[in-house]
Amino acid sequence: MLNIKNLEATIDNKHILKGLNLDIKPGEVHAIMGPNGSGKSTLANVLSGKNGYEIKGDIKYNGESLSELSTEERAQKGIFLAFQYPLEIPGVNTNTFLRTSLNSIKKARGQKELDTLTFLKLVKEKASELGINEKFLSRQLNVGFSGGEKKKNEILQMKILQPKLSILDETDSGLDIDALRIVADGVNSYKNKENAFLIITHYQRLLDYIKPDFVHVLSNGKIMKTGDAELGIQLEKTGYSNIV
Amino acid sequence: MKTENLNKNNKDYKYGFTTDVENIRSPKGLSEETIRFISNIKKEPKWMLEWRLKAFKRLKVLKEPDWQKPKYPKINYQNLYYYSAPKSASEKPKSLDEIDPKILETYKKLGIPLVEQKRLNGIAVDAVFDSVSVATTFKDELTKKGIIFCSISEAIQNHPELVKKYLGSVIPLSDHYFATLNSAVFTDGSFVYIPPNTKCPMELSTYFRINASETGQFERTLIIADKGSYVSYLEGCTAPMRDENQLHAANVELIALDDAEIKYSTVQNWYPGDEKGIGGIYNFVTKRGACKGKNSKISWTQVETGSAITWKYPSCILQGDNSVGEFYSIAITNNFQKADTGTKMIHLGKNTKSKIISKGISAGNADNMYRGLVEIKNKAINSRNYTQCDSLLMGNKCGAHTIPYIKNNNASSTIEHEATTTKINEEQLYYCNQRGLDQEEAVSLIVNGFCKEVLQQLPMEFAVEAQKLVAISLEGSVG
């Protein structure tokens, strides 16, 4: 699904990714761990097509080169990024945002857009799975939301947009243990053979709930080590210093 | 029907066509002769002609104001036509069947069908084409309730007692240059009277269209809500695309008596000029409402997206005790458009309240100014004002300015003013893009969110249109 070869990324003359290689197949869960400043969020931004990066190397998504595609085209093709810091959009309620988003994606794929009633039914169903109160949906997008609410909202969006590749950028940071479990349950319930996850995290604790197939250690812009779920547990005990 | 786009550069302005109809025009230029011509062709009574001439005399000693921020080349008032009417409408049609089909077609193209199918929407329409009103729909249904909704020309003929009593009662004859010019040469506009204790059963709407070239449009609207009545009124405006700047100087007067309420909404989409700033309407308008009675309320809502220059301050004079004035505004300027707009809230009565919500959006090389006066006079005890002015900037070449004038002569009264200026946030756009929205959808979503408090004030039927208009006005403004 995703094949990254020798990826380099530079922003504001800072060389951040320095030859990163990564392959993700459908149905797999990959975790990326690593010290601060190692380039984890840069990887998420580059994959989603954020402006401002100078890119070298090659990223193929389902055989297609990503470099020519805009952010929205990537999203329309099924790449989803759960933001580390979800943005507030005053005056736009969560429902409206979600529906506009879903219908933009459907339109781009030549699918039928959802009418209001069908959409509301869908969003209520998905919200209740995540224990999200209906009232929350009519609030302005992320405005005045707690950290936990913002992250749950990202997972709700993921479940509604049904992406093929979901990138979670430190979705676990700032969550209490209950919220963490809800987020993890959200991911686990969406996981299937067709879609894949790239989970960026600092902590093993999220991986206690979402079992990764691969754990990669990212340091100084490269993947230094790859292992299975055991690697995460080991890192939690020994830190990164033995590896990087 | 022959239509043409006079300016091919601007693809976004879909109302830029002209209609090829035969016109009757007044002599060119501003003179007593022109005024007599207008009064004569409208078969006006003598008192009306005298009123106009008095205004004209006054105009000669007034100077065009020049304190506004947007500057414009000197207008040659002798080079304008003050009256232009489609030939077929100069003998006022008795029914919709008698209207020139070309004009009906024009309104259809604008999305304003004048035939009674509008019934479904429950909106009565008065359509003003250049200098004359061509049709008023639903007259019979309104008449049953005693509501008068007609062109101001008809009102002068048929309801002179009301016109004499109220015309110029809110905007005096000698108010300022453009208002006085309007008083001298106004050609048509709408008239509304709502009898006591009557709730007008439908939205009343006037649609203004400038068609002829070298023509100024000087319309005059007068709305009177008698005791305990309610009316919601909406005006819309468009014009063909031309390289010349055309002047639109309207006067709108509202009068609310005891316990009456007037809601006045404007969706102004005059031709804004092309992306280089050539052409476009000068929209220099005087709008003022008097809350004459106790517990009366006047609420202005405006969505200003068109015009090369918008220069207007819909105002409320809060004369009656406990009266309420509101002003909700969205002003969008793109390319080389300029807006200097806001309101005046004059508190005279006790316990009067006013609220101002202004949203200014500036893109391209445009300049957007909120200018507003809140004045609480010494007898207006326990009065309150709340003002919120938000500006949104798109790009690095546009400007936003806020100039509040605040005068409080009363220790028991309070005035609050909040202002913010923000730039459209790249991160917000990225977030929307990541959710599959393209740049224009993202801008439209964010801007409509920014304007929400004002859009909510519009009658339902127009809110959706206004949202689209907001999006269209900003197309191509984020690269």
Task: Provide the descriptors you would attach to this structure in a database record.
heterodimer; A: 244 residues; alpha/beta; Rossmann fold; 6-stranded mixed β-sheet; 9 helices; 12 strands; B: 479 residues; 10-stranded mixed β-sheet; 12 helices; 22% helix; globular; disordered N terminus
What does the secondary structure layout of this molecule look like, with pairings?
The complex is a heterodimer of chains A (244) and B (479).
Chain A: E1 2-11, E2 14-24, E3 29-33, H1 40-48, E4 54-61, E5 64-65, H2 71-76, E6 79-82, E7 89-93, H3 94-108, H4 116-129, H5 134-137, E8 140-141, H6 147-161, E9 165-169, H7 177-190, E10 196-200, H8 205-209, E11 214-219, E12 222-227, H9 229-238
Parallel strand pairs in A: 3-10, 3-11, 6-9, 9-10
Antiparallel strand pairs in A: 1-2, 1-4, 4-5, 7-8, 11-12
Chain B: E1 23-25, H1 32-41, H2 46-59, E2 84-86, H3 87-90, H4 101-109, E3 123-129, E4 132-136, H5 139-144, E5 148-151, H6 152-158, H7 160-166, H8 177-185, E6 190-194, E7 203-209, E8 220-225, E9 230-238, E10 245-248, E11 251-256, E12 261-268, E13 280-291, E14 297-304, E15 309-312, E16 315-318, E17 324-333, E18 338-341, E19 344-347, E20 353-362, E21 367-376, E22 384-393, E23 399-408, E24 414-423, H9 426-434, H10 439-450, H11 452-455, H12 460-473
Parallel strand pairs in B: 3-7, 6-8, 7-9, 8-11, 9-12, 10-13, 11-13, 12-14, 13-15, 13-16, 14-17, 15-18, 16-19, 17-20, 18-21, 19-21, 20-22, 21-23, 22-24
Antiparallel strand pairs in B: 1-2, 3-4, 5-6
Helix pairs in contact in B: 1-2, 2-8, 6-7, 9-10, 10-12
